[in-house]
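Example 9 (inverse folding). The structure is encoded as follows.
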């Protein structure tokens, strides 16, 4: 790789790694477009979840791009995504029986070679695949392609981790909001009945079960004085 192309790859890798991938569809589109422009081949990218490939994006001439969806079905793209391993084929005519529909479309469009690399998140989990389609005189730089795929996978994994952290934060906030009135209600009932805190909690829980209400709903009613100690009976 010449210095100029190395700089281009480095800049593209950085751009893909820092992209906002909370919505992975635009990130896949940027990966495909970057691979097409930088490597000079038709490119496609897709995600995989529970064994199903989806969200296919492509960039390049219309003819070869028409073969990209088939490549992510029973083709090299789908195989790389599902196996987590590169699938490299410089001569598709030798793989007609392996990928019938894809090879037929690819050869008709002038594509003779296909290279698929897994897209992995920062944790190493395979989240999709990058597909490259070329002609007889077009062999892509697979080292550069792997860098681009890795950068996109890292961005997707980072976004997923942010989503997980945000979900946990919201769950903790919800739990705290529901817990505060329960603790307040335990104190109110304890003061009203002369029972200990644990026994007061037992009254709350028994009342909630009998009425089919949530514990937080009953607790809020106690704190607001909408129900009094006379309505409570032990478990």
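The amino acid assigned to each position is listed next.
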């Amino acid at each position: 790789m010449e210095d100029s192309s190395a700089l281009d790859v480095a800049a593209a890798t950085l751009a893909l790694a820092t992209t906002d991938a909370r919505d992975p569809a635009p990130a896949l589109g940027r990966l495909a477009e970057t691979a097409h422009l930088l490597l000079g081949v038709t490119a496609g990218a897709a995600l995989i979840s529970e064994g199903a490939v989806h969200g296919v994006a492509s960039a390049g001439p219309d003819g070869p791009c028409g073969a990209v969806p088939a490549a992510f079905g029973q083709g090299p793209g789908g195989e790389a995504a599902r196996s987590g391993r590169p699938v490299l084929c410089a001569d598709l005519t030798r793989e007609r029986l392996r990928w019938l529909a894809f090879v037929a479309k690819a050869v008709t469009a002038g594509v003779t070679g296909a290279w698929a690399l897994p897209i992995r998140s920062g944790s190493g989990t395979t989240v999709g695949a990058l597909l490259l389609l070329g002609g007889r005189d077009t062999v892509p730089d697979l080292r550069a392609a792997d860098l681009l795929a890795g950068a996109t996978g890292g961005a997707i994994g980072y976004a997923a981790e942010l989503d997980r952290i945000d979900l946990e934060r919201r769950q903790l906030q919800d739990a705290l909001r529901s817990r505060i009135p329960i603790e307040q209600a335990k104190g109110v009932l304890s003061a009203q009945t002369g029972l200990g805190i644990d026994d007061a909690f037992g009254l709350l829980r028994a009342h909630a079960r009998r009425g089919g209400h949530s514990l937080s709903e009953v607790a809020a009613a106690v704190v607001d004085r909408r129900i009094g100690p006379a309505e409570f009976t032990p478990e």
